[in-house]
Specification:
binds calcium ion, 22-stranded antiparallel sheet, elongated, single chain, mainly beta, five-stranded antiparallel sheet, 31 strands, Immunoglobulin-like
Length: 470
């Protein structure tokens, strides 16, 4: 109403509704990437617009490369796009290509463009007032990611084997191993390299390349061995393709061995959720080439996690060509709120129970009893865990076999923060076998282990290892 009354008072009054949008093709670019900002300016009329200018200064964090304007001219230094005239219902487009500066990872970089001036009045926006929400202003924000991230770990172990007479160490044999694992992550691509160095030289090297393509994750692993003359020899190759489609998990593993390059093995696994929280997985194996017994050699269906009346079932059905179906059923239930009973039954092909494993556990003790096909007691295990004060706990595990003496394992652990001091002593058939003392540090980024094992003949070895993650 205000506009109409002012316009009616003026000799000449024209309006042109200018609308501006801005978008970017890569909202989360990597440092160094080139990306394109696109500004679209539309005149919604009713009159033609003249003397139109747009301000679009580039923000800190990106550097100008080139531009293309469908109308008028753009000056990257001033950030001004001189559009000129724009007829009613017409649009003009400005594309600015920039590169993302180094050191901008994690920063929000906002680029704003707005109509700076026009000869005509705009019914719903004012030029150059910087107000968000008006239709003559467009804004996009990018958050760059680091170009490449290198992580990995270095670990090494030194084992000393003493050559001893009855009570005296005469000399040590050393075994030194160093593992280097480097992981490079770049634009969705992961390269993982593992090398092992021991006293004989660089012995082993594996290279894994992983990429994400749409809903598929593809991983190729190449395993090499380095000969003593330094030549790298291909050993084995595998390709894993996995992903999720329509609620189903798919995993396809193809392997080629260096000693039989014309043969390849393929394993396809499909799994998904079913009723009552159960997971159903099916596995099929295909072998092509020389040395394969059956083209389709193996197939298995596993149903796990079905809960009925407090009993959890797991069923594994195995099919092999020209062989009867095998069925293995496991179930778990609680007994009198104190113990959990695990039973495992192998049912087919003979439709006879061939073994039963009964396990009873609570926080402090654990009893495992094995029965053979005639349901005779075959082996049992009793475990006792005693947590004491000051991080000290004592554990005793005894294995009972009919007609034989007890096997016994006794261990004591003291924990203080990331440090753990442990002693383990093993008795078999009533005879002392070994005792081992170890001191371990397990913390993020750093690991350390020092241990020594004694047997009835004396010191067996001293092992120390160090792990550094970066
Ligand atoms: Ca407008
Ligand atoms: Ca405005």
């Amino acid at each position: 109403m205000l506009f109409i009354s002012i316009c009616s008072a003026l000799a000449r009054c024209e309006t042109a509704d200018l609308e501006l949008t801005k978008r970017v093709d890569i909202p989360a670019p990597y440092e160094g990437d080139a990306l394109v900002y696109t500004v679209t300016l539309t005149n919604k009329g009713p009159e033609d617009a003249t003397g139109v200018e747009v301000s679009d200064p580039l923000p800190a964090g990106v550097s100008y490369l080139w531009h293309r304007a469908s109308r008028g001219s753009y000056n990257a230094t001033t950030g001004r796009w001189i559009v000129g005239s724009l007829a009613a219902s017409a649009s003009a487009k400005l594309e600015i290509t920039v590169s993302v500066d180094r050191g901008t990872a994690g920063r929000e970089i906002t680029n704003t463009a707005e109509v700076a001036k026009a000869d005509q009045a705009d019914p719903d926006s004012l030029p150059a007032n910087g107000r968000l929400g008006e239709d003559d202003l467009g804004q996009v924000t990018i958050v760059p990611r680091p170009t490449a991230k290198v992580s990995g770990s270095l670990s090494g172990s030194l084992t000393a084997y003493p050559q001893s007479t009855t009570a005296q160490v005469t000399k040590f044999d050393f075994d030194l191993r160093v593992y280097a694992n480097f992981i490079l992550t770049l634009s969705g691509l992961t390269v993982n390299s593992l090398a092992r160095l021991d006293l004989a030289g660089l012995e082993y090297e594996a290279l894994t390349i992983g990429a994400v393509v749409g809903w598929l994750q593809i991983t190729e692993m190449l395993i090499f061995g380095r000969k003593l003359d330094g030549e790298l020899a291909f050993q084995r190759r595998s390709l894993t393709v996995q992903g999720q489609l329509q609620g189903l998990q798919l995993r396809n593993l193809l392997t080629w061995a260096a000693d039989a390059p014309s043969r390849f093995d393929d394993t396809l696994t499909i799994s998904g959720k079913a009723a009552a929280g159960a997971t159903i997985a099916s596995e099929a194996k295909l072998c092509l080439g020389p040395g394969c017994d059956h083209p389709l050699s193996y197939e298995r269906i596993t149903i796990s996690g079905i809960s009925l009346g407090g009993v959890t079932f797991q069923s594994i059905t195995t099919f092999r060509p020209a062989e009867p179906i095998e069925e293995r059923l496991a179930l778990q239930f609680k007994l009198a709120e104190l113990a959990v009973v695990n039973a495992s039954l192998e049912l087919w092909p003979a439709l006879l129970v061939s073994s039963v494993v009964l396990t009873a556990t609570n926080d402090l003790w654990r009893v495992v009893l094995n029965y053979d096909s005639q349901l005779n007691f075959s082996r049992g295990t009793v475990s006792l865990i005693l947590p004491l004060a000051h991080g000290l706990s004592v554990r005793s595990t005894t294995t009972i076999t009919p007609g034989e003496e007890l096997d016994h394992l006794l261990s004591a652990v003291v924990q203080a923060g990331p440090w753990e001091l442990m002693n383990t002593t093993v008795f078999s058939q009533g005879q002392f076998q070994s005792t081992e003392f170890s001191l371990q540090l397990a913390s993020a980024g750093l690991g350390f282990l020092l241990s020594a094992r004694f047997t009835p003949t004396g010191l067996e070895y001293v092992l120390s290892s160090l792990r550094i993650e970066f």
